[in-house]
Design brief:
Elements lengths: L3 H58 L6 H32 L8 E3 L1 H18 L3 E6 L6 E3 L1 H17 L5 E9 L2 E8 L6 H4 L11 H6 L6 H11 L3 E7 L3 E8 L7
Parallel strand pairs: 2-4
Antiparallel strand pairs: 1-3, 4-5, 5-7, 6-7
Bound molecules: adenosine-5'-diphosphate (ADP).
The site of adenosine-5'-diphosphate has 21 residues, from helix 4 and helix 7.
Membrane topology: Multi-pass membrane protein
EC number: 2.7.13.3
Catalytic activity: ATP + protein L-histidine = ADP + protein N-phospho-L-histidine
Amino acid sequence: VTSEDEIGDLARSMNRMAATLAHVEAERDELDKVRQDFIANVSHELRTPLTTMQGFLEALQDGLVQDGASRHKYYDVMYKETLHMSRLVDDLLELVRLTKHEFNLVKQPVNMEALLNRLAFTFTAEAEKRGLALRLALDLPLPAVLGDAGRIEQIFVNLLGNALKFTEHGYIELAAREEKGGVEVTVTDTGIGIAEADLAHVWDRFFKVDRVRSRSETGTGLGLAIVQELVGLHEGVITVQSKLGEGTVFTVWLPGNEEQT
Ligand code: ADP
């Protein structure tokens, strides 16, 4: 015997199931859209250098570029385009690996003082080449961070690389201090800055404020997406503040090694 109450219950759970299904379908469509956008972006990013190379190769093949100097320029552009494509593929593979959680972070206590000193040393030469000063401001002592040293280094290599890339005058500062049992690191530059409307998008895959300029600088638009994944895998926090024409500050907080504290 099926009572009206039971039918009512059944109807309600069918409704719930239908609602859940609609929700899952909406999510699936959304996922498909993300995937489609991703594929479209990758194709576009690879298509552009390929088109350039194809055109240049055809011109060379057809004997349209006779003098040595022009030929040299053509080869140079083609070489740079292949470098750009390699970087793009490397970054893509890295990002996919990170988001699929296919690899394990080897988390150990990381001495941040040593790591940041090493980075400052590496980047000083590059900064000086561009007439920029690299300042290091460590508020010592810093607690050890629990993380994968190589991956943490990668976070700051990307941030410092961007700071250099987008700064023409002034300085880059790498600073760190203890914060909430962990370490807060800031990478500050006096560069071109990021408009408020663009700020939320800097983490998006393939996002570049100025595509032409960044392309000549061989940017892939994937660096900050990778940084964000890496900070997340460390259960850290990353934020950005910027003012157009004045400069940018990226702040990364990484949790301390609790066993130590
Ligand atoms: P890219 O390979 O282009 O550097 P990123 O993901 O690292 O890719 O950065 C995305 C975009 O965010 C950059 O193309 C640039 O427009 C902007 N951006 C990132 N860092 C800075 C910075 N320090 N100053 C100004 N703009 C920046």
